[in-house]
Amino acid sequence: MTKRQIPVMEVTSNRPTPMEIATWHRNTFPDTGLQGQKNKLNEEKREWQQSHDVMELADIYIVSCGLLRFDSAEAMMGFHYVEEQCMLFGVFHKKLLNAVDKKMQINYHRVWKATSDGAYHHA
């Protein structure tokens, strides 16, 4: 019998890393601040809690990546929250990362507007 190497997880070459998402965030939302992004994170958490749709969990991951630009402990708390929710609701990492990929492809083509609380929404 010959041994066959089985990949643990398929990773696409176009999958954005957290730092690439943070760079996109900085370029797309140059005027946002830490508080505005904390507000956005809380908004995305509420949407996830209402729907339990993996695309909403992907939004929390993306906002957490954006928080990295502020060197914020909030980013780490966001990533921890995503990890916790994945375990609680049986969302496998591959499913989450595929949702992040899909959501980022949508986000790259959106037009964004600032809100009064310092967050951004697509127009």
Structural description of this entry:
It is a single chain. The protein has 123 residues and is mainly alpha-helical. Strands 1-2 form a two-stranded antiparallel sheet. The chain contains five helices and two strands, in the order αααααββ. It is globular and about 35 Å long. The protein has helices at 18-28, 34-51, 54-67, 73-89, 93-107; strands at residues 112-114, 120-122. It has a domain at 33-108. Helix 1 (18-28) crosses helix 3 and helix 3 runs antiparallel to helix 4.
Which terms would index this structure?
5 helices; mainly alpha; two-stranded antiparallel sheet; 123 residues; disordered N terminus
Q: Over all CA atoms, what is the radius of gyration?
A: 16 Å
- Order of adjacent strands in the largest pleated sheet: 1-2
Uncertain segments are 1-12
Strand content: under 5%
What is the N-to-C succession of helices and strands? Answer: HHHHHEE
Helix count equals 5
Main sheet characteristics: 2 strands, antiparallel
Count the strands? 2
Overall SS class: mainly alpha
The whole-number mean of residue pLDDT values reads 87
Helix content: 55-70%
CA(first)-CA(last) distance = 58 Å
Outline type:
globular
